[in-house]
Design goal:
Layout (H helix, E strand, L loop, with lengths): L1 H34 L5 E8 L3 E4 H7 L6 H5 L3 E4 L6 H16 L8 E7 L10 H8 L7 E5 L5 H15 L4 E9 L14 E9 L5 E10 L5 E2 L8 E2 L1 H24 L8 E4 L6 H9 L3 H5 L4 H4 L6 H10 L7 E5 L6 E9 L14 H7 L2 E2 L2 H7 L14
Parallel strand pairs: 2-14, 4-5, 4-6, 11-12
Antiparallel strand pairs: 1-7, 1-8, 2-3, 6-7, 8-13, 9-10, 12-13
Length: 394
């Protein structure tokens, strides 16, 4: 009996040691997995902003409002898509620029995914992403889809592309944020709703900027919505600021700062979603960023809120001037509600000839514009409907 007891105890000790060893190895493996993310980032980028502009003061005058409304919103004018432009044409143009800037680092045959984020796609049932894929000669060996989450659909597309690239399922993917922002005539949204797009090629090699980490903050907060078959969105004014934009933007930024063990002082630039010219400046100050960190990526004052393109065009503007080693914090916001935050580090690859667009975002926006009046704006955005009238008397 004593010998049997000793054998049993030996087996128990052996099993215990094996379990502890396995547990320790498992813990070690999890620790290694958590601390060694695959390197992923931006290979190239492109953007598009339509040429037409309407001044906010002209919109205000048309509705008998004070001309100072633009100043209160921090927006001077907004970009307007012409009658033959839409979020699909914007997406195609931005993708073509991104492909060109990639040079030999990008091949259409290496693009394994194209994701387009938008809330104003021209087709209710038909993807914009496949049109983009065809336009850049990336078909047929790829996956393509349209994303929707109000103004953060483009950054959600970035996260999806990052996941496929990091896992090794694809070599490169393209994420696009593109919108012709919608607003009912006379509504407060009409003063800021603009149009534009930005595209980013995501990969693991020849990176102009690495994406170190990402963090999202989401809740069911209905501050802005558009029901099926409705032409224009609605919004709940009292939810727009504190419970929606600021809660989620600050939540996502603070979340990624904690996750990465960094502070606002560690970043040279910060790009926040910009529904107007005032909110991102205020949010940045609340978070502890200085004005200089915000300025380069603040585009809304001169082109309006481009919805899914807003924070992404802002990032493109920052990449236009950022130097190797500098760090960027990007945070989008989408009504409904959620924010996606990213930390990026600029690489030496960005300084190679041709790796940036020929014109910087801010220069392009300043040079390539043509003003139209409010009636011209209504015509181009097809807000004047053709009504057939039946004569009362024959």
């Amino acid at each position: 009996m004593k010998k049997m007891k000793e054998i049993t105890e030996t087996k128990e000790n052996s099993n215990s040691a094996n379990v502890n060893s396995t547990s320790a190895n498992s813990t070690s493996a999890n620790s290694t997995s958590a601390n060694s993310k695959p390197k992923v980032g931006i290979v190239s980028y492109g953007y598009f902003v339509p040429r037409l502009r309407v001044k906010i003061s002209d919109i205000a005058a048309a509705w008998g409002k004070d001309a100072s409304v633009g100043e209160s919103l921090g927006v001077k004018e907004k970009a307007v898509g012409a009658w033959d432009e839409d979020s699909c044409t914007f997406a195609v143009e931005s993708a073509r620029m991104a492909m060109k800037c990639g040079g030999s680092a990008i091949s259409p045959q290496n693009i394994g995914a194209i994701y387009v984020g938008s809330e104003s796609k021209p087709y209710a049932v038909k993807p914009t992403a496949t049109i983009v894929a065809e336009a850049i000669c990336a078909t047929p060996s790829l996956t393509a889809a349209d994303f929707e989450f109000a103004c953060k659909a483009g950054t959600a597309a970035m996260q999806a592309a990052m996941g496929l690239v990091a896992s090794g399922y694809i070599k490169q993917g393209i994420a696009i944020g593109s919108d012709t922002a919608q607003a009912q005539p006379g509504d407060a949204l009409e003063y800021t709703a603009g149009g534009g797009a930005a595209a980013f090629v995501i990969g693991r090699e020849n990176l102009i900027a690495t994406i170190g980490d990402t963090y999202s903050f989401s809740t069911d907060t209905p501050d802005f919505w558009r029901r099926q078959h409705e032409e224009f969105p609605q919004h709940a004014g009292r939810f727009t600021a504190e419970p929606a934009y600021f809660k989620h933007t600050l939540g996502a930024v603070n979340g990624i700062l904690e996750k990465t063990g960094t502070t606002p002082k560690d970043y040279d630039y910060v790009v926040l979603h910009q529904p107007n010219g005032k909110f991102p400046v205020r949010a940045a100050k609340m978070l502890g960023f200085n004005d200089n960190a915000v300025k380069q990526g603040l585009i809304t004052p001169v082109i309006g809120n481009t919805y899914s393109g807003a924070s992404m065009i802002g990032l493109a503007s920052v990449l236009d001037v950022a130097k190797p080693g500098q760090r960027i914090l990007l945070c989008s916001y989408g009504s409904g509600s959620g924010s996606d935050a990213f930390v990026l580090t600029v690489e030496k690859e960005i300084e190679k000839p041709g790796r940036r667009p020929k014109e910087k975002v801010l220069d392009y926006v300043a040079k390539n514009k043509q003003y139209i009046d409010y009636v011209g704006y209504l015509k181009h955005r097809k807000k004047i409907k053709h009504i057939e009238c039946t004569p009362l008397f024959i």
